[in-house]
User: Fold these one by one.
Assistant:
Number 1:
Amino acid sequence: MTTLQKTIDFLQDKMQFTKRSEIENICIVGPVNLPVKQGDFEATFQWYSWHVVDAKLSKEEVIDSLASSNLAFGQQSSVLAYGDFENGEEALIRMHSICHTGDIFGSQRCDCGYQLHESMKMIKEHGCGAIFYLANHEGRGIGLFSKSLAYLLQEQGFDTVEANHALGFEDDTRNYEDAIRVLETLRQKPVTLITNNPKKLKALKEHGLLADGHIPLWGGLTETNKFYLQTKINKSGHIAQQKVTVQ
């Protein structure tokens, strides 16, 4: 057996397909050991990534097509799992929408970076869980470039919803179906969601994946993001700080 074939065989064992539609599959790759350190916080997560592919492609064909697919031009989503995520009786998850400015640069215009890092700490402390990092959710689904334009409008007094509407978008175009399919592939038992967003709760509830309650995550309040956070509650229906039970 050639070295190339050994490589392909090894990688295929780390890949699995789950059906997205009649013409597309979601190809999930992992787990990959990912040691993480942020200040005093340290943990080793199991990292998964996923990519939507033609349903006719085999795993070997997916590997063969990587170099010509220009995947760098379209972000792929991923999962950070901790503990026995597949079998653990209780697992915390966060469906986290990518925020280039908040997660990477530490922008104080939002609370996204705070929520991401706090969720990782909560999951480690709990002992079992996962963060689904959703790469096509930038700016509530409008993309990074459009988000930069929305930020300019916000500097003129628009709130988040008004700015998105002014650019021709709905206030929130995010969809959680692919992430839920990946979740169902990695784990069949219910989960507890770390969120303030009722749309995320509704999406998981419709698939029968949600435990009885959720864990709210408020914090990271600054002078530069307090209007943004209040808009989440006033216009996007985000749940205020008390813990609630899904009916």
Note: The chain has a mean pLDDT of 84.
Number 2:
Amino acid sequence: GHPQARLGPLLLVLTFASGLVDSVSFLGLGQVFVANMTGNVVFLGFALAGAGGLSAAGSATALASFLGGAVAGGRWRCAHPVRLFAPLVAGQAALVGVGLAALAGGLGRYAVLVPLAAGMGLQNAVVHRLALPDLTTTVVTRTLTGLAADPWRPAGMRRGLSVAVLACGALAGGLLHTGAGPGWVLALVLVLLAGVAAAAGRQGGRAGGPQPDVPPPSPDSGQP
């Protein structure tokens, strides 16, 4: 099996958190995504074409911040990516904390948007390193395609869970955003990320003994 497969449940938690974070950015920060960059690129095109209700500056800022976070995460190198998982998720939690503080302090949409998008870039960088097929935590199009094209393969359950969990995160985020406000959504994200980082840290500690010197998985393995 895949050497990082034991992190699958934690990646599903990150997938749920991705839906939560995008609910905050889309519903509260001017119809912009911080996790779903495919939608963000499309929104940028629509905004540049003059579509109402969309902000080219907001979409471009989210894209740039996401890429900045991904670049920062990509600079970490390790033969065993599971060891990177906990510290990078902890870094994402810190960025979400910055966004929550900016929201509470009324510092404006960009002060919230930038750290949230950078955190999602960091998350995607570590997931990219893990290269666990069909658990990208944000990309659904390819996962849905695999589920539809090969529904009876063993990966079908994982693909279905990934899509369902992201949808549940968006649903929960939308309900919580409407009922209690975006701050509570980000607080929930912060709790989830802290829990994932703690659990991953324990797994990394158990995996910290002597291990064979193997190269990291191919960055393109299982990723769009």
Note: The radius of gyration is 17 Å.
Number 3:
Amino acid sequence: MRNATTIRPEEASHFGKLAADWWDPKGSSAMLHKLNPVRLAFIREAIDTHFAADSRVMRPLTGRRALDVGCGAGLLAEPLARMGAEVTAVDAAAENIAVARDHAIRGGLSIDYRHGEVGALGLAGYDLVTSMEVIEHVADKQAFLSALAGALAHEGLMVLSTPNRTTASRLLLVEGAERLGMVPRGTHHWEDFVTPIELHDLLAAAGLRMGNPMGIAWSASRGLHLSDDVSLNYIVTARKD
């Protein structure tokens, strides 16, 4: 199961073409730049809770290993490294890995970037495994989550985020955001979105217990923010049973 193919070549190609301006906050990945602080707030609280870390400490992952799967050009991998983690980051697009490596070097960060199929890289024993907005792009969701579970240490923490498959997400994330140019055309395929119930069952089949999902919502007054409303997007923790 762990060596099953999960990469969709057309998806890797789509995101690889966006690599050059991934770090431009006003470029094609502008929405990810706005989303990243929201995700990081959730991740930091989850780290503090799971590992009993002091919320005032700047580097709560010191001495721990972190794996970011579907890392793109490193928007999450770099903050994890700055939190003290020894970071490995994997992506299906070679172009993304090249940009990520260059950006990390220029920022003085040591991150082990790898290109390829996550289940075939022999990854194991990570204290923290993250995968943000990735499962909706893979060919085999169960195989993908099994590969993530295989990389997670027994007492480790996993954090996942993904769009929910609802009428609201179709209208706003696909038809709205893509037509308005907020997200590159072809980024989202609504039928591949995963509901919280579906993700719960997929994680359970991989031997993982899912925490309560937290929504990532949008409003004109607050922008993107953590919310009880999971109708657009949500983020969850998981751990081994």
Note: The two ends are 19 Å apart (CA to CA).
